[in-house]
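To illustrate the input format used throughout this study, we show a single complete record. The first block contains the structure-token representation of the backbone; no residue identities are included at this stage. The design step must infer an amino acid for every position from geometry alone.
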């Protein structure tokens, strides 16, 4: 009798978990990769906290925090070694967590007053070399500078970035790569000798497709943030969570196998339906407002519940985003620093409490 009960409990547990996975295929977390000195507590966090919450997707924002052999000149100090990454791969495999690395491509090649490694080492790739970095960054500014971009039409830029992409994907043993591509304010600049006068939507779409096609050759999927594919004026979403420089029409030009990470932080905007109806798979991404994360989860479940058989699988799930950095988040999560009711750790806990109901 005890054996029968045990088998019954095991089966119901497995079936219950399988059903949960069917409801939302992606139960994700996106966070910066730790540096080499803080790897062990991060692995412990994966082993204990992500696994217990049934997180099945981990996007790690690596950028130049890896000891690249193909382009060693682009490494950060104290970057992760291949052996470090193998530890991350091992713990994720142990818990059936899909591990996806991110390197920001196209945009986010600078931050505040600091140039990123790519444009620092290869200044010829700069889309707007005439825009000088300020000593003290302020927004708004006369140059419209938020973050620098590389020129997607520079003849040598993809030789460099694809070396990085291939090496990081091999190291992470992954079948997907996140290219960022959010908040691209500089594209098709009027002073760029290659891009001036060209359609910004086509420039953006061509860059997305170029990266996607490169990944497909090795059976890998491209993930990107979705904000540049939304019309900021028509929707009222504005220039951060949507586009005000006419890249939004690229939504009809990009490959349909690209995964869209649809982030909205101030309101639970329901743009996942828009992406699904455009034929694109979509993941909804909250940040630090627990009520929004719960509302977004329920919206996504409702969308799947009432969707046609063609639309339903495009609503892929939820992914918590963390922008404070891995060490800062873990301090907050474990109570080593104060966390308010609207914080990354509070939102993370609320989201996965809702998903695990």
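Output of the design step:
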């Amino acid at each position: 009798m005890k054996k029968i009960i045990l088998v019954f409990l095991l089966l119901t547990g497995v079936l219950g978990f399988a059903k949960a996975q069917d409801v939302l295929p992606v139960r994700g977390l996106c966070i910066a990769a730790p540096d080499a000195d803080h790897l062990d507590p991060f692995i412990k966090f994966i082993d204990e906290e992500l696994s217990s919450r049934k997180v099945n997707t981990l996007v790690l924002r690596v950028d130049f925090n890896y000891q690249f052999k193909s382009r060693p000149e682009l490494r950060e100090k104290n970057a992760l070694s291949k052996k470090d990454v193998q530890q991350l791969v091992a713990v994720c495999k142990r818990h059936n967590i899909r591990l996806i690395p991110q390197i920001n491509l196209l945009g986010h090649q600078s931050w505040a007053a600091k140039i990123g490694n790519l444009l620092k080492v290869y200044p010829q790739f700069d889309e707007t070399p005439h825009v000088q970095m300020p000593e003290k960054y302020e927004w708004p500014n006369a140059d419209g500078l938020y973050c620098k971009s590389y020129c997607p039409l520079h003849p040598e830029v993809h030789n460099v970035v694809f070396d990085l992409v291939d090496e990081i994907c091999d190291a992470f043993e992954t079948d997907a790569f996140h290219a960022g591509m959010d908040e691209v304010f500089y594209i098709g600049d009027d002073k760029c000798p290659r891009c001036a006068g060209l359609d910004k939507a086509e420039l953006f779409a061509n860059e997305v497709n170029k990266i996607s096609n490169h990944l497909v050759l090795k059976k890998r999927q491209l993930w990107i943030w979705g904000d540049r594919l939304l019309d900021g004026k028509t929707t009222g979403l504005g220039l951060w969570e949507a586009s005000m420089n006419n890249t939004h029409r690229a939504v009809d030009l990009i490959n349909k196998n690209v995964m869209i990470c649809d982030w909205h932080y101030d309101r639970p905007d329901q743009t996942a339906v828009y992406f699904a109806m455009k034929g694109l798979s979509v993941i909804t991404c909250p940040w630090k407002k627990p009520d929004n994360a719960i509302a977004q989860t329920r919206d996504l479940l409702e969308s799947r519940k009432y969707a046609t058989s063609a639309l339903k699988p495009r609503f892929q799930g939820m992914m918590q985003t963390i922008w404070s950095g891995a060490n800062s988040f873990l301090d907050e999560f474990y109570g080593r620093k104060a966390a308010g009711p609207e914080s990354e750790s509070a939102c993370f806990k609320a989201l996965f409490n809702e998903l695990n109901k």
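Structural context for interpreting the output: The CA atoms of residues 77 and 116 lie 13 Å apart. Residues 1-21 have pLDDT under 50 and may be disordered.
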